[in-house]
Write a structure and sequence with these properties.
Layout: E1 4-9, H1 14-30, E2 34-39, H2 42-45, E3 54-57, E4 60-64, H3 71-82
Parallel strand pairs: 1-2
Antiparallel strand pairs: 1-3, 3-4
Length: 84
Amino acid sequence: MSDIKIKVLGPGCKNCEKLYENTRSAVGRMELDADVEYIKDMEEIKKYIMMTPGLVIDNKIVHQGKPLPNPEKIEKLIRKVIGK
């Protein structure tokens, strides 16, 4: 079990799938031990954001809507939240 919890929020559309792929790519490139969860349940998504896709790192909303962040931008967002 990892210390870093990352949630990709979206109903399963093309943009949401791309954000999930980009997030997994960023985590892999950083060699992080992180749980990346893809949440498609709209009731759960509404607890965090109103516009999809969204990205939540350790319960901090770091992105919602478009344009989608690329893996490099996601790495920066992760580093900002976890302080590395």
